[in-house]
Amino acid sequence: MFFLQFHFVLEERGFIPNSFNYLKSLVLSVSMADWVVPSIISLLNCSPNLEALTIYFEGEDCDDWKISNKSIFCLTCHLKTVELIHVAGDENELELVRFLLKNGHVLKKLSFSWMEDVENRKEIISRIMKLPRSSSNVALEFLEPKPHDDFLKY
Questions:
Q1: Element containing residue 9 per DSSP (H, E)
Q2: Exposed site from 4, 63, 86, 136, fewest CB < 10 Å?
Q3: Pfam families, per this entry (predicted)?
Q4: Read out DSSP for 13-25?
Q5: What is the pTM of this model?
């Protein structure tokens, strides 16, 4: 297992200067800062053959994320499984889910592992189930929270 950490010293956040053509699986731990989405999108753009993505959410909610609907090759052709861990159901997370469902043409499985204290899970699940999907084969899986979910386990 390799760990890759990005330090944003460039003025334009979200710019990742490399290509990861052989990357098939990626695990991210992300804060809820406003610069995170451009960074995730840049990383996906640099990973054209990515098949599995795990995102572990950390931190508090921030300003609303705005995600463009531009095409990303790995979402169109390769990304089959996405696992979202420590989901609180806030608007930014739902915006990311909307983006993945809309653009994940070959997506087969999108799973959610909740934070322990999320009280309105049924309402959030209902909202997610109503989102449009580009893949007719995608299965949505909603898992009970696991005590002491820790990023290093993934």
A1: none
A2: 136
A3: FBD
A4: TT------TT--E
A5: 0.82
Tokens 């169109």 correspond to what residue?
76
Listed by start position, the domains of the chain span 25-153
Q: What is the rounded CA–CA span in Å between residue 10 and residue 35? A: 12
> Residue 84 forms beta bridges with which residues?
55, 112
Tens-place pLDDT, residues 8-62: 433 344 455 578 888 899 998 887 666 677 778 878 888 899 999 999 988 665 6
> What is the per-residue pLDDT across 65-83, written as a single tens digit (0 to 9) for each?
666 667 787 788 899 999 9
94 to 26, 112, 130: CA distances (angstroms) = 20, 11, 12
The rounded distance, in Å, linking the Cα atoms of 135 and 101 is 7
